[in-house]
Automatic annotation (TrEMBL), chain B:
Phylogenetic placement of the source organism: Bacteria, Bacillati, Bacillota, Bacilli, Bacillales
ABC transmembrane type-1 domain: residues covered: 72-265
Alphabetic keyword roster: Cell membrane, Membrane, Transmembrane, Transmembrane helix, Transport
Location of this chain's protein in the cell: Cell membrane
GO cellular component, one term: plasma membrane
Name of one Pfam family that matches: BPD_transp_1
Predominant location: membrane
PROSITE patterns per UniProt: ABC_TM1, PROKAR_LIPOPROTEIN
Protein name: Sugar ABC transporter permease
């Protein structure tokens, strides 16, 4: 009995020693991580504690830390107005629409790219269609403005008159057009990028499958329907699920800058992100914005965890964690 | 040889050419608008080809170009410093996480993962950088509150290192007496150049295009990056159009006219568009790499 326990303690002592030895030997590896860890601490972890300001009555003269606790007041105000409903609805509906359209269009373009045999042309197409992904939202807002500028824009001065409509449209004050405009702009910017992602998945398909199908007399279209699509379905599902996990977050640049943050468009263009930002800059209510930010962080977190659990059940390697 | 369907191939070419045109036309409109005579724009609106060619907008910019040059200086500084520092931090984080011997590896991995899952959001970040660290209206905030590093970059690089650097190589270097820093410098960095290039490029593009950080933390025009300058010019036009209405004659005369505005936007986007053909191969490789590994 005592022999066993002494052997055990000797083993644990050895393990401890080894650990200590390792710590010393591999301490340079730990030292290397210090800058990154410090950055994560300041940039990611400190703000996490900051979400408690959603429970405070933010008062800049008192200072934020000294402001009074008000419990759920900010949330009550937020959910009493129609704002909470509008920003949640917009954020979710746009995300679902973008996810659906983006997947269909990106995959279609990837399949078309896969039909191009000439390397030079393939590279040229890829380069041109992924170019919008490279451009900042500010520049894109100028491009959109060149079309929609009420006085000089291409739409009001050239395209609408060609269609027989001489009355121009005041684009930046008419909310009803923006679901279409934002969808077009989002897809224009994203399809090139998305198609290259799927194209990479198509490149991985074994050429022998096509060869065998060809011998059996399958046409190219049949090959796409019977071989290409079934093989990329798991990739599609994974990508879609991962995007679903981000359904509470919107592309701030698209909804804020492309719309020029025009208040008249609130009904169809406000998302949780733009709402929070407008609270921060003072054109909205800071307390309600902090509450919206808290709501986004928490619900967003729950969604990511749930989605990841679903992904994990389907395929372990594709899961985020 | 893969069998081909000529009809499908032609269809692919046509669709891709049309979409390529759709990607290029807005830029042509922008450039054309900047090269059109102001009176012609007022009479006919913007068009895809200048009806009356004029370089007046650019001449105006050159005479009053100090704002633009300073903004480019800010953007260049932030991009270069941000990319060098950010890439170093990412590398120094990813490499130890790719080694199984690293002490507390599990804990650090968890911290990196969790930072990808949960975020405090915009207002708490603002409190940290502006109120606690007092970095508002400094050039440094553009670097640190941007993306110096993030979980995705760290994980992408870590996965690459685990796949491409053999344990034996590291062990034999240890036997030869190389310490960890030497191994990082002489083995890890040279074998990781593809992923360093990709993440470096993505970080650089991020900093070049970043306007959100400046919008939140910078109120002094001296510190505007080119993106923030562009945004400010757009805002001024909106403000005057919506608030002053018909009485804006005097103010309108002093501010950039529509062609000048378009010329500034061209100046803001031209450098990256000119550089694009030279790095597009890496850019596309980077997108594909993220798709396969991520």
């Amino acid at each position: 009995m005592s022999q066993i326990s002494s052997a055990k303690s000797a083993a644990s002592l050895q393990a401890k020693k080894k650990r200590k030895y390792n710590l010393k030997r591999y301490s340079p590896l730990l030292i290397m991580m210090i800058p990154g860890l410090l950055y994560l601490l300041v940039n990611n972890y400190l703000p996490m504690f900051g979400i408690v300001i959603a429970f405070k009555d933010i008062n800049f003269t008192k200072g934020i830390l000294a402001s009074d606790w008000v419990g759920l007041k900010n949330f009550e105000y937020l959910f009493k107005t129609s704002d909470a409903f509008i920003i949640t609805r917009n954020t979710i509906l746009y995300n679902v629409l973008f996810l659906f359209l983006g997947t269909v269009l990106s995959l279609s373009f990837a399949i078309l790219l896969n039909e191009i045999r000439r390397k030079f042309l393939l590279r040229t197409y890829q380069a041109i269609i992924s170019m919008p992904h490279l451009i900042s939202w500010v520049i894109i807002s100028y491009l959109v403005y060149a079309f929609l500028n009420p006085e000089n824009g291409l739409m009001n001065r050239t395209i609408l008159p060609m269609l027989g409509m001489d009355e121009g449209i005041s684009w930046y004050t008419e909310a009803k057009y923006w679901p279409v405009i934002l969808t077009l702009v989002d897809q224009w910017k994203g399809i090139g990028y998305g198609s290259i992602v799927y194209f990479a998945a198509l490149l991985g398909i074994n050429e022998e499958y096509y060869e065998a199908a060809r011998i059996d007399g399958a046409s190219r279209i049949q090959q796409i329907l019977r071989i290409t699509l079934p093989i990329v379905v798991p990739v599609i599902i994974m990508m879609a699920l991962l995007q679903l996990g981000r359904i509470f977050y919107s592309d701030f640049g698209l909804f804020y800058q492309v719309t020029l943050n025009s208040g008249a468009l609130f009904e169809t263009t406000a998302t949780i992100d733009t709402y929070v930002f407008n609270g921060l800059t003072g054109s909205g209510n800071m307390g309600m914005s902090a509450a919206a930010g808290f709501y986004q962080s928490v619900v967003g977190f729950v969604l990511v965890i749930t989605v990841n659990y679903l992904v994990r059940r389907k395929s372990k390697e594709s899961a985020l964690f | 040889m893969r069998n081909e369907s000529p009809v499908l191939t032609w269809f692919s070419h046509i669709v891709l050419i049309l979409f390529s045109a759709a990607c290029i036309i807005p830029f042509i409109l922008l450039i054309s608008a900047s090269l059109t005579d102001q009176n012609s724009v007022i009479a006919n609106g913007y068009s895809l080809f200048p009806r009356e060619f004029s370089t007046a907008a650019y001449e105006y910019l050159f005479t009053r170009g100090s704002d633009i040059i300073r903004a480019y200086g800010v953007t260049l500084f932030v991009t270069v410093v941000g990319t060098v520092v950010g890439l170093s931090v990412t590398l120094l984080m990813a490499y130890p996480l790719s080694r199984s011997e690293t002490p507390y590896r599990g804990l650090v991995l968890f911290l990196v993962f969790f930072s990808m899952l949960f975020s405090g959001g915009m207002i708490p970040s603002y409190l940290v950088y502006a109120s606690i660290l007092g970095l508002k209206n400094t050039i440094w905030v553009l670097i640190v509150a941007g993306v110096l590093t993030n979980g995705y970059y760290i994980m992408m690089m870590r996965v690459f290192m685990q796949g491409s650097i053999s344990k034996d190589l590291i062990e034999s270097a240890q036997l030869d007496g190389a310490n960890e820093y030497r191994i990082l410098w002489s083995i890890i960095i040279p074998t990781s150049t593809p992923i360093l290039a990709v993440i470096g490029l993505f970080t650089a593009i991020y900093y070049w295009n970043d306007w959100q950080t400046g919008m939140i933390y910078i109120t002094k025009p001296d510190l505007y990056s080119i993106q923030n300058l562009l945004k400010r010019i757009m805002d001024d036009v909106q403000f005057i159009q919506s608030n002053l209405g018909a009485n804006a004659g005097g103010a309108m005369a002093q501010m950039p006219t529509d062609t000048v505005k378009m010329a500034i936007a061209v100046c803001g986007s031209l450098p990256i568009l000119i550089a694009y053909p030279f790095f597009q191969k890496f850019f596309i490789k980077g997108i594909m790499f993220g798709a396969v590994k991520g």
